[in-house]
Amino acid sequence: MLNIGGHLSTSKGFMDMGRDALFIGTNTFQFFTRNSREGTAKAIDPADLDAFLELAAEQRFATLLAHASYTLKPCSAAEKARNFAMATMQDDLARMERLSGNLYNFYPGSHVGQDEAAGIGMIAAQFNRLLTPQQTATLLLETMAGKGSEVGRTFDELQQILDAVELKEKMGVCLDTCHIHDAS
Description:
Blueprint: E1 5-7, H1 14-23, E2 28-32, H2 46-58, E3 65-67, H3 79-96, E4 103-106, H4 116-130, E5 138-142, H5 155-164, E6 171-174, H6 177-183
Parallel strand pairs: 1-2, 2-3, 3-4, 4-5, 5-6
Helix pairs in contact: 1-2, 4-5
């Protein structure tokens, strides 16, 4: 079966996203776990989520893709930014457990003021503190365009992160063809 989806807004809740997906003829979708530019998260309405999960099972939705906020910087030189990324990702992954077995897409970030090795090490260290054997969500590293000091612009950089993560079975890669094209 071919799985096709679109990026849908969470503003009206999960059930609305499910209906929108069906309306446009898709069987999956991507959504931001929180405001993509600020990092604030809307509370999940349990009744709305339960109704969506029932619809998703009935309509045989494929795996969903949640996208992390752009504000996360786990390899920042600033400790405050790294701590915010850790706390936000912990909250996002806890939210994802309510949507058991889906994907959580993440931009690795920028190593501003440091080198690639330091950035890669910080990202992997955060994942090693963050990931648990019990979680059902798979964390996806998204390929980056490599502008400035972005980490993840090459497959080698992504492989270095994955190699340093202890729970490799909780990890994957999201191939963003636009970013790859932009990086070349």
